[in-house]
TrEMBL record:
The keyword Transport applies. This is Major facilitator superfamily MFS-1. GO terms for cellular component: membrane. The lineage of its organism: unclassified sequences, metagenomes, organismal metagenomes. It holds the Pfam family MFS_1. InterPro entries: MFS, MFS_trans_sf. Coiled coil: none annotated. Keywords: Membrane, Transmembrane, Transmembrane helix, Transport.
Length: 207
């Protein structure tokens, strides 16, 4: 409930702050909120006294390059759409994504316990959920970008764009409430299909 509430009201509050101040104060406010939250979690979450596993043999190199690759890979569509596909920033993201992917493959081939094991990745049970995730998240980000851009271009009101984004998150929260119990009772394929259908309907409504 708390997570859904923060996701819903966050864009509206952010839009108000953005309209009154600018982008930089919003970033600093987010940074301060993260620091405060980290301290609250450190003092409120109880220490886990359960058995601990050693990090010996952990694939640190793979973990780092997984983070770099996916970060750059996911930035490419956004930067390409907003700044242009030939923009230096977009091209740098593409180059870093390709290089980090090559390095990641080389590291994973040599490591005894790779994070991205080929035996796991190329199974249908792994590939299909990843494809569904990329499709749903891609459509979601497209919807969000279009909502924000449309509100700002047509009205010039950044607060309104925040409110519009909050309304979208209300739909996401309701979707989680509806699909959550369904996931425990129905087949994963059925739940994933329903989720994709609703995301596609939302994208079609904007078109």
């Amino acid at each position: 409930f708390v997570a859904n509430a923060m996701v819903i009201f966050g864009p509206t509050l952010g839009g108000i702050v953005l309209a009154k101040t600018g982008w930089r104060p919003v970033m600093w406010i987010c940074f301060a909120a993260c620091v405060i939250t980290a301290f609250v979690v450190m003092f409120m979450v109880k220490k886990d006294n359960g058995p601990k596993k050693s990090l010996k043999g952990f694939d640190f190199g793979g973990a780092i390059f997984v983070l770099v690759f996916f970060s750059m890979f996911l930035c490419v569509p956004t930067f390409g759409q907003n700044n242009g596909w030939g923009n230096p920033v977009t091209l740098v993201c593409m180059a870093v994504a390709v290089i980090s992917l090559v390095v990641l493959v080389l590291i994973e081939k040599k490591h005894q316990s790779p994070i991205l094991s080929g035996q796991v990745i190329f199974r249908k049970n792994f590939i299909l959920p990843v494809i569904i995730m990329f499709l749903s998240q891609g459509l979601l980000q497209s919807c969000m970008t279009n909502i924000i851009t449309f509100a700002i271009i047509t009205t010039g009101d950044r607060t309104l764009s925040g409110i519009a984004t909050s309304i979208m998150y209300v739909g996401m929260a309701l979707g989680g409430i509806v699909l959550g119990p369904m996931a425990d009772k129905k087949e994963p394929k059925f739940v994933a299909t329903i989720a994709l259908v609703f995301v596609a309907i939302g994208a079609a409504m904007q078109m």
